[in-house]
Amino acid sequence: MNAPLIAPSVLAADFANLQRDVEMLNRSAADWIHVDIMDGVFVPNISFGLPVTAAIKKHAQKPLDVHLMIVQPERYLEAFRDAGADILTVHYEACPHLHRTIQQIKSLGAKAGVALNPHTPVQLLQDVIADLDLVLIMSVNPGFGGQKFIERTYERVRQTAAMIAEAGSNAIIEIDGGVNQSNAALLYHAGARALVAGNFVFTAADPVQTIAELKKVW
Ligand code: DX5
Ligand code: ZN
């Protein structure tokens, strides 16, 4: 088994010092940089969009893991790819033509992910799981950093891991929301292989050390 991939979310970074914070992530054991795009429609909050993503890319030495919390994400996939996204994750709840949207992401040469809100049954991914690189299981309701982790997530991870194994899919399970030192190991043992962490990393006295510790959970 391998250590989990750690994807710190820049939503919790200091936006007035983004270059400094991205350079900190470059020096750290972080594997990906998680970029949260919120449109104020799909979720009740607006974060930032294309120019800020491109600015992060300019300094990032790690892949950008772009989480699109927006309606009609198919309209913006190419633009986010051009802005530097390496992984493009859309929400199941925002995609009536999910199969087509996944193919669109792949045709852009990016890794394809689908995110599920806490109430969305994981089994709904059964018919696309073989095409996915990533399943992002939300462990809070999307829209804000710093929320409390939903305990039911562990069972959802186990169910998703079983579905992935049965389909012979290479998809990895990523968890997003309220991840910290006390749930990271349990998530890993349930089958999660990528962990997003926003506030836990950026409010830590030593974020580089905190990222390294999150990786040691397996
Ligand atoms: C929530 C975002 C998360 C968020 C995680 O809608 O998708 O990526 O930044 O932040 P924490 O780790 O603080 O819950
Ligand atoms: Zn996210």
From TrEMBL:
It catalyses: D-ribulose 5-phosphate = D-xylulose 5-phosphate. Keywords: Carbohydrate metabolism, Cobalt, Isomerase, Manganese, Metal-binding, Zinc. The keyword Zinc applies. PROSITE patterns: RIBUL_P_3_EPIMER_1, RIBUL_P_3_EPIMER_2. Pathway: Carbohydrate degradation. Its EC number is 5.1.3.1. SUPFAM superfamilies: Ribulose-phoshate binding barrel. One of its GO terms (biological process) is pentose-phosphate shunt. It comes from the Bacteria. One of its GO terms (molecular function) is D-ribulose-phosphate 3-epimerase activity. Substrate binds at S9, H67, G143, F144, G145, G146, D176, G177, G178. Binds 1 divalent metal cation per subunit. The active site is at D36 (proton acceptor), D176 (proton donor). Transmembrane segments: none annotated. InterPro entries: Aldolase_TIM, Ribul_P_3_epim, Ribul_P_3_epim-like, RibuloseP-bd_barrel. One of its GO terms (cellular component) is cytoplasm. A divalent metal cation binds at H34, D36, H67, D176. Its cofactor is Zn(2+); Co(2+); Mn(2+); Fe(2+). Belongs to the ribulose-phosphate 3-epimerase family. Catalyzes the reversible epimerization of D-ribulose 5-phosphate to D-xylulose 5-phosphate. HAMAP family: RPE (MF_02227). This is Ribulose-phosphate 3-epimerase. It comes from Runella slithyformis (strain ATCC 29530 / DSM 19594 / LMG 11500 / NCIMB 11436 / LSU 4). The lineage of its organism: Bacteria, Pseudomonadati, Bacteroidota, Cytophagia, Cytophagales.
